[in-house]
């Protein structure tokens, strides 16, 4: 019943649109070219997870029915990930096992990003992002600056504005000059 509130008059689901905009932001070329996200299947999953985390974190800070929107966003995301697995040729018998692995990775990342953003250690987020998104190495300070800016930008959105926003994330290219 609550999902009817999130459907546009022309039949489109605003949560699916929010997912699409979030996925688009996770594919910004500057994330890969300038901020150190590997342009691989795994790197793209990590970028999508990071962007979903940021939207979900904002939704957690908003009053009802934002929690329902967050759950629907997760549901849409996992449906799209499952569809993508099938498109790349993963067999029907293997999909549930792969989805379990993806879910474990997703929720593990969400937890580690939450902890890193809550930490008073300025380098904690850069180190967490380097480990999870960039595959190790030096702290990802440019990516961390992008994440903090995205979190600050998203803080200015209420639920209605977030669902209507064309681009709720800052341009990743803006952070290309940061240490990455």
TrEMBL record:
It comes from the Bacteria. Transmembrane segments: none annotated. Residues 34-167 form the Ubiquinol-cytochrome c chaperone domain. Belongs to the CBP3 family. Belongs to the UPF0174 family. This is Ubiquinol-cytochrome C chaperone family protein.
């Amino acid at each position: 019943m609550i999902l009817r509130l999130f459907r546009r008059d022309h039949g489109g689901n605003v949560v699916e649109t929010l997912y699409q905009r979030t996925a688009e932001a996770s594919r910004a070329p500057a994330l890969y070219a300038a901020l150190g996200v590997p342009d691989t299947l795994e790197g793209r999953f990590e970028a999508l997870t990071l962007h979903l985390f940021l939207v979900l974190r904002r939704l957690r800070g908003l009053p009802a029915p934002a929690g329902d929107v967050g759950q629907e966003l997760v549901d849409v995301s996992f449906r799209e990930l499952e569809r993508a697995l099938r498109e790349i040729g993963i067999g029907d018998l293997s999909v549930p096992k792969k989805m379990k692995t993806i879910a474990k990775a997703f929720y593990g990342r969400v937890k580690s990003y939450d902890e890193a953003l809550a930490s008073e250690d300025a380098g904690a987020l850069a180190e967490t992002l380097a480990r999870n998104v960039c595959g190790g190495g030096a702290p990802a300070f440019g990516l961390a600056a992008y994440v903090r800016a995205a979190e600050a930008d998203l803080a200015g959105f209420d639920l209605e504005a977030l669902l209507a926003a064309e681009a709720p994330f800052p341009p990743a290219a803006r952070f290309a000059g940061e240490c990455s």
